[in-house]
Amino acid sequence: MNCNTVRDRLMNAATDTFSELEPHLSSCVSCQTFADRILAAEQETGQELDAFMTARPPDWERLGIEEPRRRWGLHGVVLGLATAAVLLLAALPALQDKPGDPRASGSVPESVVLADEEFEDLLSIDLTAIELDDLAREDQDAALTGTLSLKSEALMATQGAYDEAYDEAVEAEDWEWQVEILLTLGEAYDDMAYGLTHMVHPSYLTERQHQIYQMSLDDKAWTQTEKALESYRMALSTAEEAGFEDWADEIANLIEGIEADIEAEKIEWEAQSEAREAKKLERARMVEPEMRALLTKLRHSLENCEVDPADVEDVEEAIQSAEEAIAADNVAMYPDITKYLSEVESSHAVGCPASPPLEPLTFSTAKVFHHSELEVKERVMPTYPVEAKELNLGDQRCLVRVHISEEGVPTYVRVEDCPKIFHANTRSGLMQWRWQPPRDGEQKIEAQTTIAVKYKLR
Length: 458
Known about the structure:
Oligomer: single chain
Distance between the termini: 73 Å
Order of helices and strands: HHHHHHHHHHHHHHEEHEEHEEEE
Strand content: 5-15%
Radius of gyration: 39 Å
Structural class: alpha+beta
Strand order of the largest sheet: 1-8-3-4
Number of domains: 4
Shape: elongated
Number of strands: 8
């Protein structure tokens, strides 16, 4: 039996039947208070009418009317009307389906006024409109961090103010303001979540860094969305308990809409995540020829070269890491393994006779093209190595020989004419390029070309 049914019974049934509702009344403070008000109102009205009838009894015989029994007589009618009026006043909050906007009544508690001011301050801070044009990197970071800090402080102030207002409403048993405060607090969390999700990014980030930055913002936004839902659910529970049926329906629809949006975003995120993972594995697989070539060179170095005894352990460890990754088909590790092998090969394979010829290094079967003859679909420029910046190596230019498959995908990259410290980043960047399929007439063919990659020290 819900609160609305119980209160309907309390309004229409005789008071001696209240015992039937005892199981519900014992567990619901609101309905018990409602029942107590009805009993008190009927008792008070009955006492006043009894006193009136005793003090001035009507002369029923002179009027020629048989004195009616209390249940059906004037006494009963007056008692019924008076009791109904008192009960209506007592029950008025519970009988309202949905009250109007409490703020429109003109009687707004001082604590709510103060909380509303904090809320307005929160809304005035817009994370989606931070101006970063023409700002240096450090200034962009300062602008973003400062604005986010102000927004967070405003949210904390808003939450604290509405918490105080809510406590006052609970103490005063003001159901209407309890619901309104909880809804407004949910809106505050929603505003923070929206701002984080659509916050401006630093302009200097790479594509991958933008993705990571957005994922971090989305994580923070999700926390605020959870808080908003918690506040809305409390508002729904309070509205149902108070008997605000229409209001409760509106809040339930609001919650349902948010939950549907979350589910849709979850499905979209999972699909995007799967697509990113597939693309990542595809790119990782493309460095396999280079990894295997480096592995062969390291094996050759260990068997035939004058490797410093102190470096043998590093070379053996690199070979073992590559062999384990290949055996387990751990494709995701191929790029890191390739970079590791390259670093070990350039550092330790010294004083070594020429390595045996390797198929990926010869490009013997591929037609040579000038780079301008091949149409690039996707270009990822390598980044200046951090280690090279620390060495202050200045601007550099690397020549890169690229072997391209019939589908326009690079299968091997060889870097020349620049310091070794630039080789790994150059290979990694060029392996992400994509070309339109090379052609000899109408036939797709493999191709090789040379590209100059320039590095600017900034």
